[in-house]
Amino acid sequence: MFQWKRMRQYKVYRKLIVSYILLVTLTVSLVCSLLFYVFSSNAVKEKDRQAKTLLTQISYASDVVNNQIINIGNEMINDHTVISYFNEDDDKIRNYEIFRQLSKIQAIYPFIKSIGIYKPANGSLLDTAGIPVDTEALAQNTKKYMSFYPRKVTVEGANGNMPYSLITFVLYPDFSMTSPSKSVIYMNMDEQYILNTIRNISKIDHDVNTFVMNTQGQVLSHTDSSLFLQDLSGESYIKRILSEQQDEHSFIAEIENQKQLVTYVKSEGLNWYFVSVNPYNQIVANIIELRNITLLTGLLLVLVGFVISLYLTRTIHNPIKSLIGGVAQVNESAGTYSKLDEYQILADAFSQYKENEESMKFNLHKSSRAIKETYLLHLFKGSMAETFAPEEWIQRIEDELAGPFYAVVVFKIDNFAKFKEREDLKDQALIRFAICNIAQEIMQQRGQADLLVTEENEIAMLKPYAKEETQRELPAVVADIQSVVKSYFKLSISAGIGDTVGARGAVHLSYKSAQQYVKFRLFYGHECILDAKRTKQHFMVTVKYPYALEKQLTEAVMLCNEAAIKKKLGEFVQHLSAGTYYQGVNYCSQLMISLFKHFEQTRSLPETNFNQYLEKISEIHSSETIEDITQIITDFLFKVCAALEEKNNHANAQKYKSLIEEVQKYIRKQYTNPGLSLEVVADVVGLSPGYLGKLFKGNTQMSFNEYVNKVRLEKAKELLSTTSEPASRICETVGIYNVTYFSTLFKKNFSMTPSQYREWAAGRRSSGEPE
């Protein structure tokens, strides 16, 4: 009752019992199934082996019979008495002697039913048992020394008038005789002899079918005599035997809706198949009893396993029960038992303990990390006096930063403005955190290193060293960090390596120097690594402001020469690249101020350009590289050029408008002059022909010649409609002396010839319609 009570109350106890019972049941079932499978497989294999051995023996016996028949035939052919029967004359005494000799041979070999000689020339037959021959079958094969064929034949008064099942072997002596002869020697073998041989060798069961067939699937002998000469080639298992082309094999097939084991052996001499068909259920019948015993034994083992499972379950569950009692109150004496889930009880207890532990660890880690970050920040800023934290925590941090040498590396994200536009605030923080982790992992291989995000676009790394010279490896390590960050985030970072200091209190000096060095990214471009050695030359050179280049650049802008602007601005920037960061930025700002003042004083710029100027000054101070500053100044100057050109174009347009009007008046007066041309008019107004043509088309939207032709054709239209002058005279009047050219030009502009226009104008005039 106690066991049942515990099983109802405790979930683990129930699972243990069920698990043990299932384990025992599955194990015993698996072992029993495996043993039964092995025994049944071995029984089938043994039966198959016995069948193959039997069929091989029968095949061998058949080959022996075949060889004996050949030997008998050879002896008979070599016997002069026997072959004398082939003569054309018929001698009864000789025939009697031959008959006696054939009878003696038959008596020696029990498998021979009869021996006979057949002479087709006169149809005479000599047979020891009086069995007739099949003359058609004897005449079919004349190309082989010996052949055989199965047949059924009935002899009156013999075998109870039942037909004999015979296999007739025919020998053709013509192949071994010097003189041709159509006579044949034949021997009839009773099919029962083969069947008796099979039964004597195998002692086969009545349910086992054993038979012999030829390569066409025709039965030559069968345990069921009614199947003699039956054609079984249509059966699926016979088709498989004939198609496999193997000397021996066995397989399982469905025959008449019953599972059968088919085994066959092929005779080499006779080319016969000896086939055995065994019912599969009889093959394994011998192990049915063994199967029953195995099942009974398995059941007993399961029962024993069940008892052992109960004992083991209780033994294993007792410690668990005691543990559950320690974390939960369990009342076993109550009338009703509440179901308990030991897993859930323990899981809740451990989960609560783990949560408390994780919460404590998290708070400690968070606090320690916050304290360390604050410590590092004050260390970088040089304000250690403002650090407030427990002494033991400060001591632990200082132990980690043993030194005694320190170097600070400052990382800057390149193209930070685009980075801020591309990523939201959350992703920006995650990427900065990832950069810190990447640097931390790479630096772990070379000792302690601490990283801190000091500004929005600044990550500082503090690296303590035991020896001062080990700092030389920093550029290679920083390059690895840049490479990994770029491969992961498609993001480049620049770095400044600060000076090595020999005291923890001087770390802020290394930090400030790293900040100064990384600013020289302005000249060295993105993804650079800068230190004191690489930037030293900039501090040793004093660069003065290039006023001459400023003047040349101003002149290029006034001329709106973009190529000269780019060239002079490039020379200006190249001059600044030898100086410091602040010189580069301030001199570029000074250039912008000078240019703006110059063009503002000349009133060359509209008022809106002042806002653009302020934006460009701000962009210069926030630019990361000198190329960015160059592009900013170039864009501004090109806009100034555009404003100047627009102003000049407007002034020129007003200046030349009256000139073009004078040219048009001159054309309308001189259109009758056939020598009127652009060169003539340009000489009159004092301009070059090309420049005048450009001004004319810009103001009238048509070329000089197009305007002249237009004036002449309009006058020609007027003359065609108001006078009766011929077209040849009119074209000369308007200044065109080639009448063909005049007609072509007129038709091109008005879609009709001069004569057609005159007719059209007359028709309109007669009808009172306006032309």
TrEMBL record:
Q: Which GO terms describe its molecular function?
A: DNA-binding transcription factor activity; sequence-specific DNA binding
**Residue limits of the HTH araC/xylS-type domain?**
661-760
Could you tell me which Pfam families the record lists for this protein?
A: GGDEF_2, HTH_18
Keyword DNA damage attached? no
UniProt keyword annotations, A-Z: DNA-binding, Membrane, Transmembrane, Transmembrane helix
For whether the record's keyword set contains DNA-binding, the answer is yes
- TM ranges are 20-39
Do you know which SMART domains this protein is assigned to? HTH_ARAC
Report what the protein is called. HTH-type transcriptional regulator YesS
Q: What is the lineage of its organism?
A: Bacteria, Bacillati, Bacillota, Bacilli, Bacillales
